Amino acid sequence: MHPGKTHQKNIRTTSKYYSFLCTMKVNLVQTIVLMCIIIIAQIHGIQDADGKRIISKYESVQKLYPQPARTETPEWRVADKNMPHPCKRNCVENQPMTCYYYMVVHYDDTMSDTCKRYLQSKYRFNIDGKEFIDSFKIAEQEPANDDCKYADGLESQVMVVNGQLPGQSIEVCFGDTIVADVINSMHETTTIHWHGIHQRLTPHMDGVPHVTQYPIEAGQAFRYRFQVDHVGTNWWHSHTAHQRAFGLAGPLIVRQPPKLNPHVHLYDFDLTEHVIVIQDWVHNFDESVAENILINGVGRNMKKDSKTRPTLYAPFTVIRGGRYRFRVIFNGVSNCPISMSIDKHDLLVISSDGNDIEPVEVQKIMFHGAERYDFVLHANQIIANYWIRVKGYSFCEKNNLHQEAILHYTDSDTQELDTSSISYTYDAPGIMLNELGDDTAGDNAHSISLISLNAKDIEPSMTPDVTYYTSMAAVEMAEGFRFQMDDISFSMPKMSLLQTRNLGIGQFFCNISQQAALGFNCKQRHCKCPNVIQVPSQKNVEMVISSKSVTAHPVHLHGYTFRVVGMGVLGEERISQIEEIDQRTPLPRRGRGAPLKDSVQVPAFGYTIIRFYSDSPGYWMFHCHISTHSENGMAAVVRVGENVEMKMCPVSNCGLCSSVA
Ligand SMILES: *[C@@H]1O[C@H](CO)[C@@H](O)[C@H](O)[C@H]1NC(C)=O
Ligand SMILES: [Cu+2]
């Protein structure tokens, strides 16, 4: 058994003190002992350094929304307080479970009172005049779900689920059914998207406001219920406004029986504590500029001028000799792709966006917003601590944003850290996978391009039935940037497209050909409407997506995984003629076995070509995953098939009525 697993977090309470009082009265009648037990039960909870009871924000919110006994059948699996969820288990074929989650969405703060005891001297240490907090000691001595969101040591308002940053890790097996009651305790609307899940049976559970459901109003609840139809490292996040930038995101890990896992022989451990969530971090709901990067919700404070607190680094413990599956999720918010590396260790990449690939060994991985990569780390170095390094590019480069976490070998000194090489200019040596501006033509000794990866799952040969050319653009105007797809700035429809689909086609949306038919040239005129791209069902669909701007855009298509068959850079002049160029001399497309993804970069003044078989009719969001881009119009909806082909949904649970039935 791995010690990380046995790290039963001690629920530290003042119960010891009270039980001491109890033993003094041991000669008294038993009822007093009973009273003591009752006192212990009441005192049990989160305490500050002096043992004083702290009511966290989540605790007070919880009181407003007591968890109901809402399970419809006894078969539903629910987590008991401070116990692992029963759905997190060794997966066995054909034994699906129904997994219940209670998710209260609420406002909260980083560095609130629940964090103050982290600052006790027993946890602090000093290197070259800089103060650190021993995260290993904290993990051993403080309760795991103590509602402390330390972040970068600065107070900031956040939005979270159940008091946690990042949000709770939902871990299930392929084929399980997830039932999640989302209770909106904020004074604004919300929705949750299950990124990586295809929602083939339940398109109305995709969590896109005004596309697949109505927003969950303030004070209301919504029950998500869907079958888990895609394995791997997935994640959940708010799909409303910029909320995921403020904390509304968490892992959704889907495992499968060892027999079905082609990489099972490559590693010994696949643990919750090796799931890494990285995000660029903003303070106090100002999404306009990332001021830091956080790894699992913590990291060094980057603001030089502010009152600094000791640094808390995220710890990742391994035992020498073990082979560990790491699952990394990048909740990229702003225009900030990141690279990741681990000092002195190779990363054997085995999967991306939940899709297995032939393993490739690299030393660095570039992540574009929403991407996930799984790699195996062989803990074969001398027993010590090693830096896990994350470095931001594009806008994050302007502020020299980087962040670190600790790969800790058991038995090494937890306070021995070499901080001398910590700087933005440090460049990890080795080969990079998925370089920014990836271009197969530019493949060299230092990089491996995404499309040279080979999928484990190879399709029958495929010729596209239909090819779409679609573009992403950020056009600078006097009044600021216009973010567009197909020269249209997406605006949310007032009606929810899926729910109102039978009330009259085309009434609520537009697209580039429809605008042209009306005599509007969107290249000249500012077109702002709900852009819906019509795609026939049961066809091999190809999309040539171009970026007509100086930055790469991470694009995400809901409802499908697609093959990435082409990627390249054409330059500013030629990119606007991509359709003619491709028709004259087809852009290079790779053969069978191209990697499967659900989120991928479109390089600056370049293109990415994707293919998928359109067998899941519905309204599927298709957008840039940079929050400020998509929320300002760099988005579209792919409407697959006709209304009659789309799955019906039970009215009470279809977003028409937003309360938990
Ligand atoms: C635009 O929408 C119309 C329906 O309003 C549809 O017939 C047409 O195929 C769409 N065009 C594109 C490019 O999706
Ligand atoms: Cu973008």
Automatic annotation (TrEMBL):
Q: Which PROSITE patterns match?
A: MULTICOPPER_OXIDASE2
Q: Tell me, which GO biological process terms does this entry list? A: iron ion transport
For the keyword Oxidoreductase, the answer is yes
Which protein are we looking at? Laccase
Q: Which domain of life is it from?
A: Eukaryota
| Residue intervals of the Plastocyanin-like domain | 147-258, 287-410, 516-642
Q: Which Pfam families does its entry note?
A: Cu-oxidase, Cu-oxidase_2, Cu-oxidase_3
For this UniProt record, the keywords arranged alphabetically read as follows: Copper, Membrane, Metal-binding, Oxidoreductase, Transmembrane, Transmembrane helix
Q: Which InterPro entries match?
A: Cu-oxidase-like_N, Cu-oxidase_2nd, Cu-oxidase_C, Cu-oxidase_fam, Cu_oxidase_Cu_BS, Cupredoxin
Family designation? Belongs to the multicopper oxidase family.
Name its species. Drosophila lebanonensis (Fruit fly)
What GO MF terms are annotated?
A: copper ion binding; oxidoreductase activity
Taxonomic classification = Eukaryota, Metazoa, Ecdysozoa, Arthropoda, Hexapoda
Which stretches are transmembrane? Answer: 20-43
Question: GO CC terms for this protein?
Answer: plasma membrane
